[in-house]
Amino acid sequence: MQRRRIPCGTNCLRSTLQRRALLAAMLLGSLAVSAAQAPKTPTPTPSTRSGAGQSSTPARKSYAPAVIETGKSLFQQNCSFCHGRDAGGGESGPDLTRSKLVTQDVAGDKIGAVVRNGRPEKGMPRFDFSDRQIAGLTAFIHTQQNVALTRKGGRKGVDVSDLQTGNAEAGKQYFDGAGGCAACHSPAGDLAGIASRYKGLELEEQMLYPKHPKSSVTVTLASGQTITGILEYLDEFTVGLVDSTGVYRSWRTADVQYEVDAPVNAHVDLFGKYTDADIHNLMAYLQTLR
């Protein structure tokens, strides 16, 4: 038997229990930007002017072709892997053409701050780009947003409103009854405020297949002794757990018997039982838990 303490910050669990039911869109959302960090970029020329007050439709901006081309090249070299070559969203990055931050950006003030500071909590690194490079990126992203706004049927992103089609009361009934959700979850406990922590597609992903679920495991040794803890590692050859004292312990699977209790399996079991109405209604109910 191996016995050691887990180094601080180490994440041992990389098992198949962490499959996803959906590809979550990492939304840019709102970001506080310091005025001192705003890059000095050329002011774009609006091709149309909005009326008084703020409009949900961004003002169209036009840029010199050479500036757009510079930004396109820079974007495709550094940003397209996550955000797609056309800025319309990729495997792990959001659709920038529908980003509120991009819509609210003026002359690169918000885009530049995000690019230069990064978003480490979302996996986005920082880029030390010059004012000229930021101006090019801004021109390309805004131009792609203009194109997306005029294109019909080509939207890749999912708005929060797209997922607000269910009946909350019917969803509560499903939660308490047929869905069996109340057996593990509580609106006043683990789900309290969940609609404030997650929104839109991210909330639906958590509902269908939660990220980073905690499973417990009970290991029975040849002597008959049992050890229970949080499952930290499991493959064909090794089972590992963190016991109640915080110590990581592992054994060869050939030498022990073990039983995993994975709450996420209850979510997986529902995949074949959900109707479209069940999903929409349950989502509507979860959106009331603020």
Order of helices and strands: EEEHHHHHHHHEEEEEHH
CATH topology term of the largest domain: Cytochrome Bc1 Complex, Chain D, domain 2
Protein structure class:
alpha+beta
CATH class of the largest domain: Mainly Alpha
Report how far the terminal alpha carbons are from each other.
Answer: 46 Å
Weakly predicted, low-confidence segments = 1-43, 45-56
Work out the strand percent.
5-15%
Fraction in helix: 25-40%
- Count of individual helical segments: 10
**What order do the strands of the largest sheet run in, or round the barrel if closed?**
1-7-6-5-4-8
Number of domains: 3
Arithmetic mean pLDDT: 76
- In one word, what is the shape? extended
Q: Measured on Cα atoms, how large is the radius of gyration?
A: 24 Å
Number of beta-strand segments: 8
Task: Characterise this structure.
With about 290 residues, this protein is an alpha+beta fold. The chain folds into three domains: about 80 residues, no CATH class; about 120 residues, Cytochrome Bc1 Complex, Chain D, domain 2 (Orthogonal Bundle); about 50 residues, SH3 type barrels, CATH 2.30.30.100. The protein is about 30% helix and about 10% strand. It contains ten helices and eight strands. The strands form two sheets. The chain has a six-stranded antiparallel beta sheet, with no helix packed on it. A two-stranded antiparallel sheet has the order 2-3. A hairpin with a 3-residue loop joins strand 5 and strand 6. Helix 1 packs across helix 5 and helix 6 crosses helix 10. It is extended. The two termini are about 45 Å apart. The N terminus is likely disordered.
